[in-house]
Amino acid sequence: MLSQRQLRVGELVRHALSDILARGGTYDPDIDRQPITVPEVRMSADLKIATVFVMPLGGAHKDTIVKALARNAKPLRGELSRQIRQLKYMPELRFRLDTRFDDDDKMRDMLADPRVASDLGDEAHAPHTDALPADDPADAKTDP
Q: 14, 41 in Cβ contact below 8 A?
């Protein structure tokens, strides 16, 4: 479980890094020509390492973007240190591809498979409601 400080610093780094990438703060054509989203930054317990999850907009050139960001980790870290003054040490940046949307699609496809649907039975096709059970009409009071 992440501490409140890890979450706060991760969000601070995510916000600053998103700003740098949005305004083209690098001189790498692989990064500057492609809009990149930064959905999450996970900090290590000692706040020395930041794992940055990135996804190129549209999902094109994923591996090229991650490699280009890894090449530019030190200049990006320097730019972050100019923007974020609250940290004693600027964390080392490690870039990873965010695969959450791909994982969601795979799970959706697996659940739509007829073999899995037959294992789930009628529960998969029945609408899920969190509503309370309807009142029994015999218990209802009638107004005279």
A: yes
